[in-house]
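I am still getting used to backbone structure tokens and would like to learn alongside you. Label the sequence line and the structure token line clearly, so we can match residues to local backbone shapes. Would you write everything just below, so we can both look at the same thing?
***
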Amino acid sequence: MEQLLSGAKATPIDVNVNNFMAEVIEGSSTMPVIVQFWAPWCNPCKQLAPTLEKVVSNKAGKVKLVRINIDENQQIAQQMRVQSVPTVYGFVDGQPVDGFSGAQPESAVSQFVEKLASMGGAGADLAESLSAGESALVTQDFDTAMGHFQKVMSVEPESVPALAGVVRCLTGLGDLAGAREIIDQLNDEFRDHDAMQVAIAALDLIEKASVSASEIDSARAAVEADGNDLEARQKLAMALYATGKHAEAMDQLLVSIQTDRSWNDEGARKQLLEFFTSLGSANPDVIKARRRLSTVLFA
């Protein structure tokens, strides 16, 4: 966590003679480690690096990527019999088990990483923990979800999906300040990750909705007095969402859409879609609301 909050990127860890044993030999007993031998003057290295980083990032929690500058670490390069760069080795349980040389297309890199990831039991366990965390989020069991995401980060501190899960858990538990603190300290690369974008959107939404939470009684009274007061219904939906009554909040927006879809430049429909994104497509309330929305729009 501290490494992420200090602005670390989802890029390879620089390895030298001082940390080779810890990061590669010992580290590969926990999860497979991909070692990229490179040099600053090597153009094929510059072509391969972003492809490797992208593919490994998509396998967050299953493999780790490190790099070794052969100009600065000739001893390691000689021991590993590196003849040219880029050269890539995959380590499992302290031993090189696969590798390749030269720049490769993304499809070939993906096959290499997939094969290596399948060799690591810890990676599979972390993938299962991520999946379990996501499932717990769907049911709003934030404490359980937090446990799964923290387990992943204890092994793979640079896992963006796990950190995004932590942010979503904090948001769900009402610790908006804690969630915002994490987001504010991330660099652009972490912010731009798809999982983190979802977490940020959820936090932004609940912060916006929280402004309306104190108005829930007055908004409900206004709606009960005049069912066509769509502004009051919109405020009520936001207040309900802020207090965790997601299904009821979506119901209010669906009624508004049915009453006058064009109101406030389709404001109710747009807000409903924000709810969908924040809660996730697997959320049971979202699934029901999507079906009702389709009925309303295409009836």
Remarks:
- Confidence is low (pLDDT under 50) at residues 1-10.
